[in-house]
């Protein structure tokens, strides 16, 4: 009887784990679908994109003015570009009221 119960328990636990894995895969698929779908601008978003670009440009000029020309400066500017892209993606994908 103990062996049967153990087998049943293990089977149940495996089923729960499988369902959790499937749910996780579905969630990731939904995230990929959302990330790679075009999100047309909604009213007010263009202004937000512009403000983010303006502030980032100010920081980019500060980086150019305050740091020596080197690999690290180049990486800082590249990463700043990534920041702009991710901020814009946040607005496009999730909006803001």
Task: Summarize model confidence as the mean pLDDT.
Answer: 86
The span between the termini is 60 Å
Largest sheet properties: none
The percentage helix is over 70%
DSSP summary: helix tally: 3
Low-confidence stretches: none
Number of domains: 2
Number of strands: 0
Rg measurement, Å: 24 Å
Category from helices, strands and their pairing: mainly alpha
Query: What percent of residues are in strands?
Result: under 5%
Question: What does this entry look like structurally?
Answer:
With 97 residues, the protein is an all-alpha fold. The protein folds into 2 domains: 1-37; 40-97. 82% of the residues lie in helices and 0% in strands. It is built from 3 helices and no strands. The chain has helices spanning 2-35, 45-66, 71-94. The longest helix is centred in the first third of the chain and has 34 residues, at 2-35.
Topology:
Blueprint: H1 2-35, H2 45-66, H3 71-94
Task: Spell out the key features of this protein.
97 residues; mainly alpha
Concise overview:
The protein contains three helices and no strands.
């Amino acid at each position: 009887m103990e062996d049967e119960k153990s087998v049943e328990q293990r089977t149940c636990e495996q089923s729960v784990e499988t369902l959790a894995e499937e749910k996780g895969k579905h969630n990731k698929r939904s995230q990929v679908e959302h990330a790679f779908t075009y999100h047309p601008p909604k009213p007010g978003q263009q202004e937000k994109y512009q403000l983010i670009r303006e502030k980032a440009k100010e920081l980019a000029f500060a980086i150019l003015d305050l740091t020596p020309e080197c690999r690290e400066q180049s990486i800082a500017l590249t990463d700043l570009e990534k920041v702009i892209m991710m901020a814009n993606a946040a607005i496009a994908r999730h909006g803001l009221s």
